[in-house]
Amino acid sequence: MTPGKAFLTSEEIRALSGRSDAWGYWLIAHCWGLIFGAAALFALWPNPLTFILAVLVIGSRQLGLAILMHEAAHNALFRTKRLNEFAGEWLCGRPIIADLPEYRHYHLTHHRYTQTDRDPDLKLSKPFPTTRASLRRKLIRDLTGQTGIKQRAQQIMFAFKMAGEVEGEPSSQDLAQAFSGPVLGRAIVANAVLFALFWAVTGAWWGWLAFWVLPLLTWFQAVLRIRNIAEHGAVEFSDDPLRNTRTTRANWLERLLVAPYWVNYHLEHHLVMHVPAHNLPRLHRLMIDKGHGDRMTVAGNYLDVLRAASSKPAGRSAA
């Protein structure tokens, strides 16, 4: 059963659930436009400030691609399955070394068992709240590339391992990051295209390394962690859909660098997971208008989320 049916009528859900190809094309174009626009800005005015800005913007849009892949996994990015599959795989997933079918399997399991012992994402949320020192160490590992390098190495090792296996599949907790050899090959093809495009945009052979690999290993990892914390970290461990996930209000800077494409409306997404992302603000307002605001877990901003996630007293900190 869709959790939102306990709070919304079928007519209200139907009005919010319509897919739009125009929205899908626009979001894909917007995401890639910002990516190549940020790289082009550095090419036009090369200096440390435009370089750092490009890394931050591109890293946030790599998260944006993951979010749009998530939309496609719910068949909500475009009206047809064919467009969702193509865009979700080749325009969103492959470039960031992710696989749409395996992600969909993993993610729908998360929706079915949210904040229960069978939730494959529980390992991401259950450590919170932690101490400030622990959260700081995690973010430092992200920003210095340690997390990204470790995860990519695990992906590659898993791909070669799976290439020789005939039977069996990874456990649900492996599906978000690990994939098979052929899938890795398609990710290499997508990144070969990106290598050429970044070279053309920046005029430098190292453009792909500086403006794709570096953000993917650093800022993308940090904002991905912040996103995971905001969605289910330090919330109620229960089956109450208004308490076991969180919506976070985001200003324009947070939407640019941390929370693209309405990803901050995560409580609403869990209520009706097939509602397209651009309609989630409308769903949020509808829930407020219907008097559910006091029960909903809503944070004022992402700093508030990080404070809550690092509120454990010092003394017995996690890694």
From TrEMBL:
<feature type="transmembrane region" description="Helical">
    <location>
        <begin position="23"/>
        <end position="45"/>
    </location>
</feature>
<keyword id="KW-0812">Transmembrane</keyword>
<dbReference type="GO" id="GO:0008610">
    <property type="term" value="P:lipid biosynthetic process"/>
</dbReference>
<keyword id="KW-1133">Transmembrane helix</keyword>
<protein>
    <submittedName>
        <fullName>Fatty acid desaturase</fullName>
    </submittedName>
</protein>
<dbReference type="Pfam" id="PF00487">
    <property type="entry name" value="FA_desaturase"/>
</dbReference>
<feature type="transmembrane region" description="Helical">
    <location>
        <begin position="51"/>
        <end position="73"/>
    </location>
</feature>
<dbReference type="GO" id="GO:0016717">
    <property type="term" value="F:oxidoreductase activity, acting on paired donors, with oxidation of a pair of donors resulting in the reduction of molecular oxygen to two molecules of water"/>
</dbReference>
<feature type="transmembrane region" description="Helical">
    <location>
        <begin position="183"/>
        <end position="200"/>
    </location>
</feature>
<dbReference type="InterPro" id="IPR012171">
    <property type="entry name" value="Fatty_acid_desaturase"/>
</dbReference>
<feature type="domain" description="Fatty acid desaturase">
    <location>
        <begin position="48"/>
        <end position="289"/>
    </location>
</feature>
<dbReference type="GO" id="GO:0016020">
    <property type="term" value="C:membrane"/>
</dbReference>
<keyword id="KW-0472">Membrane</keyword>
<dbReference type="InterPro" id="IPR005804">
    <property type="entry name" value="FA_desaturase_dom"/>
</dbReference>
